[in-house]
Structures are given as C-alpha cells and as structure tokens.
Specification:
This protein is α/β, with parallel strands linked by helices and 428 residues long. It folds into 2 domains: 43-72 and 326-427, Aspartate Aminotransferase, domain 1; 80-323, 3-Layer(aba) Sandwich (Aspartate Aminotransferase, domain 2). The chain contains 12 helices and 17 strands. The protein has a 7-stranded mixed β-sheet, with helices on both faces. It holds the Pfam family Aminotran_3. Pyridoxal 5'-phosphate binds at residues 127-128, 160, 245-248, 303. This is Acetylornithine aminotransferase.
C-alpha cells in the first residue's frame, strides 16, 4: 500500500498553512470559526485518502480503519468495480427525476428482491428516510388499504432508527430527543426481550412493531431468537406489520446478506442504507407484495432517491458483494476476530463481554471507553463506541487475517494499559 505521494503531501501542507494563517493565506486575517453547525463532536483528524482497509490523514499518517464510516464502506475504501461504474455513469447521466423510468432502479430492485423475501422496493437517500418510509407505509397500509384506525409503532429501548422527527421518536434513547419537543404521536417504546411488556403495549391502534436484529448504536445487543419468535407470533395474532431496521446490519455485515436471515423470519418491511452503496448516499425500503397498493402514485416520493448515479453505485456494490460471497466471508472473519479478541482479552476483568454477529462486534467494558478510542487513533487504529462502555468494531468485509491480527494486537494492548491505569487509580 503506497503512502501519500510527495505532490499530495505538498498540496496538503499548503492547505494546512493557509488554514492556519487565515482566510486569505497571507496571514492577514485570524482563523474564523467554521461555518458548519457544530452538531458533531468531531475527532481531531482530517482524513483525505482511503484504499481498502486503510485511510490517511492530511499529514500522511496511515490508519487501519475498523469503523468503515460507521458500517458504510463495507467493500473497503474506493472499491475499483464500484468506482469504475460510478465514473461511467458520471459521463452518461446524473439526474432525471422519478417522473421518468430509471432502468438502473429496476436492476437494483431485481438484485435485492431476488436475494430476499421482499417483492417491492422504494429508493431514498439515507437510513432515516428508509425508516421514515417504512413507518409511513405501515400506517398507510392499515388506513388506506385495510380501512382501520391503526397508526402506532412499537419500538424498543436502546434502539436507534434515525434523526428525523419520526425516527428519533421511534428511537429508544432519550438523548436524541432532547430539545425537540413536542415529539410526534403514535410511538411506544418497551424494554427489549420483555415479551409481556410488548404484549401489554399493543392496542387497537397498533400498526407495526419495529426492531433491529442487533441494536448497534445501543451497545451491540443481539436479539434473542426466542424473543423474536414471540414478536412474530404477536404480529400474526394482532394483524401487525413487522418492520426490521437493517440500516447497519444489512448488506452482509452480520454474516448473512440481511441479519433477519439468521433467524428464519420474513419481515413485512425492512430497510437498508449504509453498506448498500459503498459511501454514496442511498437508502432502500423493501416490502412484501401485498403492501404495494398502499404506496399508490403520489403517496410518497423522493427527489434524489434512486438517481442514475445512486442506482449505478448500488448495483455495482450489490453485485460485488454477491459475486465475492462477502456475507459468508464476514461470517468467517467475524469468527476469527471474535476468537482473537477472546484469546487476547480473557485475562482482564476490565472486559465484561465480547458479542455481536459477523463483522459487527462489541466489547463491553466495566468503565467508559472514550479514552481508549482516542488512544487507538494515536496508535493508527480507528474504531468507535456503541454507548459509553462498549467498543464497536466494524472492519470492511474484505478485511484480512493479518489486518485483524494487527488491530487485535493494538486494541488488546490499549485495553490492558487502560485497565491497569484504572486499577491503579482505584487502589491509590
């Protein structure tokens, strides 16, 4: 893997000097506050280049990427086949509006439906929009097709479904809702794995139950088979739709193309984003054929959903994933990663549990892990949290055993060092 070229380094050095000098590059004006809203607590890194499992910052420092843009770059950075398809499409056609037929959408929809239990597809731009579409489809199906007064969606504590007003209300975490009152009506949240609480929450107004197979943002909590079987039974008993949020777990991440395939169930609706387009903004909502009538012309739309550009990238991403059997590879590499972590960390009581599916791995610790995340960056390893006490590992699906070994060696050293520090402070 090559480092940044000298030309690239010179260009980046000049940009840094200009930034530090001020707006005109002559040192005449003090640096200004960014014009970007400060809604992100950003790490002190600017990444400018990526290839495969590696990224580089402005100074040319190299990092092993075990966060993949939060489970987005599942084929690694700058995958060649996807890039070639995008470049070809850029020279052909960018945008025409969904008032016209877009052949690429039909090809992507065929790839998705032929490899899932879904029959229909709606294209949008993000996971939040995909989940918003799922909520709207569930309501409209019950109200316009079935003629009932059903609109409520039940979700679970520690879940995460997005940042729109509807999807943050559906999210089972209070922190994302602060300052956004009043929240939309029509949502209930119950504890995960509490079937009786779920049963008690169902009323004549309940339209759907919505959940993730692995609560990724909520701490890498894997849904139990027995509980999910109970959810499916309740949906059948009460005529409810089952919505599975596969925004982070879909597209091979957990060792199956879609995480719900581990459980032998067929949701009425499921959603995708993140890994579906290798970093290009894209989201997908998929549903059963009997829901088709609910989304009649004019009922829902997206200006940029499934543009020729987005469709080209999704098609190349999905084809690559299927041709190279990446879900199967994720299962294999996930077993290897989990095994190496357990072998290296079994001697520290600082680690509470290692859990997950495929290449979606969580390391739950007895103390907050933010300091470990920052220490990892200094050692050239990028990973992220899933809540205050959980380290989340999201390598790309092509990750090699050598890359896993490098990451585990660094991470285990960091965890042992931090555990010793915490223990020493407690004893002092």
């Amino acid at each position: 893997m090559s480092e940044l070229t000298q030309t690239e380094k010179d260009s980046l050095t000049g940009a840094l000097q200009e930034r530090s000098a001020g707006t005109d590059g002559q040192g005449a004006a003090p640096a200004k506050l960014s014009a970007v809203f400060p809604s992100y607590a950003r790490y002190d890194l600017s990444l400018v280049k990526g290839k495969g499992s590696w990224v580089w910052d402005e100074q040319g420092n190299k990092y092993l990427d075990f966060m993949c843009g939060l489970a987005v770059t599942s084929l690694g950075h700058a995958p060649e086949k996807v890039g070639a398809k995008l470049k070809e499409q850029i020279d052909t056609l960018w945008h025409v509006s969904n008032l016209f037929h877009i052949p690429g959408q039909d090809r992507v929809a065929a790839l998705l439906t032929e490899n899932s239990c879904a029959d229909q597809v709606f294209f949008c731009n993000s996971g939040a929009e995909a989940n918003e579409a799922a909520i709207k489809l569930a309501r409209r199906y019950h109200q316009k097709v079935k003629g009932t007064d059903r609109y409520e969606v039940i979700t679970f504590e520690q879940s995460f479904h997005g940042r729109t007003l509807a999807t943050l209300t559906a999210t089972g975490q209070a922190k994302v809702k602060e300052g956004f009152l009043p929240l939309p009506a029509g949502f209930k949240t119950v504890p995960l794995h509490d079937l009786e609480a779920l049963r008690a929450a169902i009323t004549e107004h309940t339209a759907a139950i919505m959940l993730e197979m692995v609560l990724a943002e909520g701490g890498i909590i894997v849904v139990e088979q027995e509980f999910l079987d109970g959810v499916v039974a309740l949906c059948k008993e009460h005529g409810l739709l089952l919505i599975v949020d596969e925004v982070q777990t879909g597209m091979g991440r957990t060792g199956k193309l879609f995480a719900h395939q581990h459980y032998g169930i067929e949701p009425d609706i499921f959603t995708l984003a993140k890994g579906v387009a290798s970093g290009f903004p894209a989201g997908v909502m998929l549903g059963k054929g009997y829901l088709r009538e609910a989304f009649s012309p004019g009922s829902h739309a997206s200006t940029f959903g499934g543009t020729p550009l987005a469709a080209a990238v999704m098609e190349a991403t999905i084809e690559t994933m299927l041709e190279d059997k990446l879900p199967e590879r994720a299962a294999e590499m996930g077993e290897y990663l989990s095994g190496q972590l357990r072998a290296k960390l079994e001697d520290t009581s600082f680690v509470k549990e290692i859990r997950g599916k495929g290449l979606l791995i969580g390391i739950e610790c007895h103390e907050p892990v933010a300091e470990i995340v920052l220490a990892g960056q200094k050692r050239g390893l990028l990973f992220v949290q899933a809540g205050p006490d959980v380290i989340r590992l999201l390598p790309n699906l092509y990750v090699s055993t050598d890359e896993i070994d490098q990451a585990v060696d660094i991470l285990s050293e960091l965890i042992h060092t931090y555990a010793n520090k915490v223990s020493g402070e407690a004893n002092s």
